[in-house]
Amino acid sequence: MAGNKKKGIIQTKGKAGNPTNLPQKPRAERALAAGLPQKMPSKSIAPAGSSAMLPFTERLLQWHNEDNHRLMPWKGEKDPYKIWLSEIILQQTRVEQGLSYYEKFVRHYPSIAQLASAPEDQVFKDWEGLGYYSRCKNLIFTAKTIVKDYKGIFPDNYDQILSLKGIGPYTAAAISAFAFNKPYAVVDGNVFRVLSRFYGVDTPIDSTKGKQLFQKIAAENLSQTKPAIYNQAIMDFGATQCKPAAPLCGSCPMGDICQAKRTGRVMSLPKKEKTLQKKNRYISWIVMELQSADPVLKPNKATLDNKAHLNKKADRHPPLYYIQKRPAGDIWENLHEFYPIETESVPEWSLKPSLLIRMLENLLSIAPSSGPLSIEAICTVTQQLTHQKIHGYIYKLCLTSRPSIFPINNWYSAKKVNDLAFPKLLKNLQIEAIPKQK
């Protein structure tokens, strides 16, 4: 028999007992179908009949039943709407941070129909501070789609769920499994890490090959009768036991058959092939405060809460502030900001404010007869995003007349400003830059 074998080919028997030639697969992949690691421990380490011989899935479910004490409000939830909310909120967000937002959204928008009909600015305000605002935009769009195309009932078909905006394979699998108990395996960061370490797979998880391989591994280990319980168990296992930086290998129920532990590769798995390239952006935000009465301003939907501004006596009404929305296609889309000036590097006026005054005089077309501009440096702030770091320079500019280049509807009272949704970086400085009105 040995003389008949070809290099890279193993000989095995098909269902009918007939020899079948199959390509030799890597050791990690050959072990997957059985739910076992690449190389089982010797009998001296794990005697026959011991718990070490249990397959991955059985051990995981046993751990879940006996030792998984992780509590979250959405665990065991069967309402697809609430599951969808929790999954979208937790994308790129720690559970500790997302919990209060989940509870707020469930309280403010108990149903898909109520979310779909809510004013968008109100929804963005409730999302304020959570970051990754495209998630909120997609949340609103998908809620309206479900109301329009599915009569307000969340679809229970995986492909239909996957077709909804903002929902990828992971979220579609989670909704299918948790809400409808359908056999779809979730693959998130926790699952990548657990399976990569247990099976000793070093294929990069961010490569096309890696994504396909780990999806296959996850599907083969999935409990067909308890998909919801299994998916919750493996995510919790990754979050509490097989953690990224401080895994609890000493108390791990998989420890004696975990390939990463046996080969000393726990901290080097999973692998990634791409290095995230981050860039720096430098933005100066000008908080423009209009202090005197401006008879050109008229009451409208943007300034109804500040009718007193028509009084020509400046000391009888509060000041107004210029606010605009962030542009489409850039960070913080649909959120609000003060007047921005972006530069390629650290702005030179950060060291010499007089340069900013001259620039603003030109930008705002302020006549010399209006008197010198009064500008104050408020603070510098930074925020690290996934792909870029924002360096913010905040200035307060006091005006006695409204520059004609700015639309009338973009001037707001301090009370109204504090009701608008801002990026976290700018929201934190409002207390310093704008006095709150009662």
From TrEMBL:
UniProt xrefs under Gene3D superfamilies: Helix-hairpin-Helix base-excision DNA repair enzymes (C-terminal), Hypothetical protein, domain 2, Nucleoside Triphosphate Pyrophosphohydrolase
Keywords on record: DNA damage, DNA repair, Glycosidase, Hydrolase, Iron, Iron-sulfur, Metal-binding
Residues covered by region (Disordered): 1-27
Reactions the enzyme catalyzes: Hydrolyzes free adenine bases from 7,8-dihydro-8-oxoguanine:adenine mismatched double-stranded DNA, leaving an apurinic site
InterPro entries noted in UniProt: DNA_glycosylase, HhH-GPD_domain, HhH_base_excis_C, HhH_motif, MIG/MutY
Pfam families: HHH, HhH-GPD
Cofactor dependence: [4Fe-4S] cluster
Annotated SMART domains: ENDO3c
GO MF, one annotated term: metal ion binding
EC number: 3.2.2.31
Any single biological process term in GO: mismatch repair
Residue ranges of every copy of the HhH-GPD domain listed in the record: 89-240
Role noted for this protein: Adenine glycosylase active on G-A mispairs. MutY also corrects error-prone DNA synthesis past GO lesions which are due to the oxidatively damaged form of guanine: 7,8-dihydro-8-oxoguanine (8-oxo-dGTP).
Family according to the record: Belongs to the Nth/MutY family.
Protein name stated in the entry: Adenine DNA glycosylase
UniProt organism field: Arachidicoccus rhizosphaerae
